[in-house]
Design goal:
heterodimer, A: 467 residues, mainly alpha, two-stranded antiparallel sheet, two-stranded antiparallel ribbon, B: 332 residues, mainly beta, 4-stranded antiparallel sheet, globular
Chain lengths: 467, 332
């Protein structure tokens, strides 16, 4: 049997590099070992992690609908049911970094195709990913590169590429933006039939030589007849880029950082950790797996339990995975997609190219109530498979004192680590019912009921909001 | 290819019916359809949400008649409707793979009955999919998640059944569409085994349709099957976005890829009313619109005209089987 510490560490890894795991999965993974699990996560299969035929058999509307909710629902289904959790988690990471929104693109299928690109390319290397991003139709339209012409540049893509997607402010000049924009002229959209009245058609990337500026450019101290790929090649070799990406990875996987606009004036919470990630980036030529391997195996990661506020998508997906009631095609998936939006993260529609503000900014009075109600409702339902498994995990421990009962519930839901004050509140409630026993049918029924209530209370704790 | 010539047969694209629409004229995620009398067609639309699900009753001449049914658990309502069939009186049978029930309505959509019970016992169903009415008026259902076929009386009394999960001849894996030929043989789109199987009326395995010598005719997740008066077999090859055609003995002879070069009148009306859409269509190559996208159901009428519904294009393409077609010289 794995030690309690091994289980807790594995649970931490699976919350961050995935969307949580059941106790049975955690025990299986512990048997294989922490580093072996990291390697499994980093090396998923080539497939998407979902049986695509089954998906579109039971949800044909995912291929047909033009509505935002269909695209959002398809992605939620994939997050809940993927066999490759880190692949899907990276798609969410890149979506939050390269924020692209339906508010302007007005084309959910194209946004979902961008998520698919993140899923496919998200664990390759940063230069490749940036080139794919520059050629991604939804991004081209989002940042107006289809309006970036020879002799008449549009700087939107060039500016955000440098400011929000790679180097961060203060590490380039206005002139660099203009020169980068010149290099991306002619990177545009191919034509396609309109989506009405026979359904969706997909955009394609098209390079138009006649619209490209082949002249000499000066960019970040380099001179040449650069095109977009050359510009990306220069960008990814900058240590500032490594540092910027490292901070994003730290914020998403390790612990909450200040919001991105404050980064130029606020140092990282853990500069040594950032240095470690920067070194991994520079040593590996920006290989994403290498950087993540360094991150997930580091002490600063292992010691950062419950220092990251779950994003709405993380909270919704991890809770239904724990409850186990959405692990196959069924009705109700759109409500999960809506729930993410109601909690403040409308997938594929971030508030701006700057993306969502994360960490404690996910929480306000309204969002907190929604988060608690959502999780408490699911975890209090002892008819759900995942909750039944928790009840079964309690039963094998036999009769439990109120304190043991609270500790066992916290253990099986996470393990979730709570402070003394929270524990005392849970304990006080548990004490009212006395010992928890399973000896008779009536006692077992009552204990199951009490378990549902206790799980709902745990879902309402401050600590449950953290991953 | 507006005309497909193969092994003494000619399949000629005729026209198409339908357009994307959330109600009224047009379809939304058509899963199946039934051909009624007087050129009536009943198109079963899964829709994209609780509002757009319905059966569109219209004519093959593009006249909209009415919408039938809606989302829900009540009588005459559906959750995940997947297939539709008509009996000799033009009563409508709809299978629902979420509620595990068959609903029966009259031609105007008036509810008659609902039968079926979730389970894997005799006469129970789990995820009923394809449905057809045989020459005796019995209802044949692909009991998909139980990997079998079952026959019922029209009011739901169990008659017989066969099949088990597997890939050997006679076994099934999540079967979807099915049809009955004039001899009473039953053809089943054996969805997850990538083949169609032919059974006798009493369930004896007879033949399978799949990739044939030369590496042609392979299927990927077939969803629908139909047989014409010559015994030629047409398969909605959903995963490959084609319709595959086989001789009665299983030899593959041709694949249709979709030829809707001329929009349906409903589509043309939409284009005419939206000048920007007309311009957008002029600036690009429209061939991608002609081709099948998720062909999901195939049916034939009494003249052996082939009708192909496409889930992602929200339309039905129509082909004729020409009997006296003279091929043009190849060296023109």
């Amino acid at each position: 049997m794995p030690s309690q510490e091994d289980i807790a560490l594995m649970a931490h890894l699976m919350r961050r590099a995935g969307f949580g795991a059941s106790r049975a999965e955690l025990e299986e993974r512990c048997a294989r070992g922490y580093e072996a699990t990291v390697e499994e996560l980093l090396n998923p299969g080539d497939d998407s992690g979902i049986d695509e035929d089954e998906l579109y058999r039971y949800f044909p509307q995912f291929e047909s609908s033009l509505a935002p909710v269909a695209a959002q629902t398809e992605w939620v289904y994939r997050m809940v049911n993927t066999t490759w959790p880190l692949k899907e988690k990276m798609a969410l990471f890149w979506h939050q970094l390269f924020a692209t929104g339906n508010s302007k693109v007005d084309n959910p299928p194209e946004l979902l195709a961008q998520i698919g690109m993140f899923r496919e390319e998200g664990l390759t290397n940063f230069p490749n990913l940036l080139v794919k991003l520059a050629q991604n139709p939804a991004m081209i339209y989002w940042l107006d590169n289809n309006g970036n012409h020879y002799g008449s540049i549009n700087e939107n893509w060039g500016r955000e590429l440098l400011e929000l997607f790679s180097m961060g402010v203060d590490h380039y000049s206005e002139e660099d933006i203009k020169e980068a924009s010149r290099a991306f002229t002619g990177w545009t959209l191919g034509t396609k039939p309109p989506r009405q009245p026979v359904g969706r058609f997909y955009w394609s990337f098209e390079f138009k030589p006649e619209d490209h500026d082949y002249g000499e450019k000066e960019f970040l101290g380099h001179t040449g007849n650069f095109d977009g790929a050359d510009i990306i090649d220069i960008i990814v070799k900058q240590e500032d880029t490594a540092r910027f990406l490292a901070r994003h990875l730290y914020n998403f996987f390790v612990a909450d950082e200040p919001q991105v606009p404050a980064w130029s004036i606020t140092p990282p919470n853990d500069p040594e950790a950032i240095d470690t990630l920067v070194k991994a980036y520079m040593d590996s030529d920006a290989d994403i797996k290498s950087i993540l391997r360094a991150l997930l195996n580091s002490d600063f990661f292992k010691n950062a339990r419950f220092q990251h506020v779950k994003s709405p998508a993380e909270l919704v997906v991890s809770t239904v995975r724990m409850a186990g009631n959405y692990n196959q095609p069924r009705t109700g998936f759109p409500l999960l997609a809506f729930e993410c939006g109601w909690q403040g993260q409308e997938l594929m529609n971030p508030p701006s190219v700057e993306s969502w503000h994360t960490g404690s900014e996910w929480i306000d009075g309204g969002a907190l109530v929604r988060r608690v109600n959502f999780a408490a409702k699911l975890l209090s339902d002892t008819s759900l498979p995942g909750v039944k498994a928790i009840v079964a995990g309690l039963k094998v421990r036999g009769t439990l004192s109120p304190a043991e009962f609270v500790r066992a519930c916290l253990d099986l839901v996470g393990p979730v680590e709570v402070d003394d004050g929270t524990f005392q509140e849970l304990f006080t409630h548990a004490q009212e019912g006395g010992d928890v026993s399973w000896d008779t049918e009536d006692a077992a029924t009552e204990s199951e009921k009490r378990t549902g209530v206790m799980l709902a209370l745990i879902a309402a704790t401050r600590e449950f909001q953290f991953a | 290819m507006l005309t497909t010539v193969a092994a003494g047969r000619v399949f000629d694209y005729s026209h198409c019916i339908g357009m994307y629409s959330t109600s009224g004229i047009g379809f939304l995620v058509p899963m199946d359809f039934g051909l009624g009398s007087n050129k009536t067609v009943y198109v079963l639309n899964r829709g994209v949400d609780e509002i757009t699900l319905r059966i569109s009753k219209c004519t093959l001449d593009h006249e909209f008649i009415t919408d039938i049914g809606r989302f829900g658990m009540g009588d005459g309502q559906f959750v995940w409707p997947i297939a539709i069939a008509l009996d000799a009186d033009e009563n409508i049978y709809v299978s629902d793979e979420n509620t595990h029930k068959i609903t029966v309505m009259d031609e105007d959509g008036e509810f008659i009955a609902k039968w079926g019970e979730a389970g894997s016992g005799e006469g129970q169903m789990r995820g009923p999919a394809g449905i057809a009415v045989d020459g005796d008026g019995h209802v044949v259902v692909a009991d998909s998640q139980n990997h079998r076929v079952q026959k019922f009386t029209r009011d739901g009394q169990y008659l017989s059944g066969w099949g088990s999960e597997g890939s050997a001849p006679g076994q099934l894996n999540k079967p979807w569409g099915l049809c009955v030929d004039k001899e009473g043989s039953i053809y089943v789109a054996d969805w997850k085994n990538d083949r169609v199987q032919k059974f006798s009326a009493d369930g004896q395995f007879l033949l399978e349709f799949k990739e044939t010598p030369g590496g042609v005719g392979g299927l990927h997740r077939p969803t629908g099957v139909a047989v014409d008066s010559d015994g030629d077999v047409y398969v909605a090859d959903w995963g490959n976005h084609e319709v595959k055609i086989y001789e009665p003995d299983g030899k593959f002879i041709a694949a249709l890829v979709g030829d809707a070069e001329t929009p349906s009148p409903w589509v043309q009306d939409y284009i005419d009313a939206n000048p920007d859409v007309a311009k957008a269509r002029r600036r690009t190559n429209m061939e991608v619109e002609w081709r099948f996208n998720r062909p999901i159901a195939v049916h034939l009428d009494a003249e052996d005209r082939l009708y192909v519904a496409e889930a992602v294009r929200h339309r039905i393409q129509v082909y004729t089987k020409e009997r006296d077609y003279a091929e043009a010289a190849i060296n023109l």
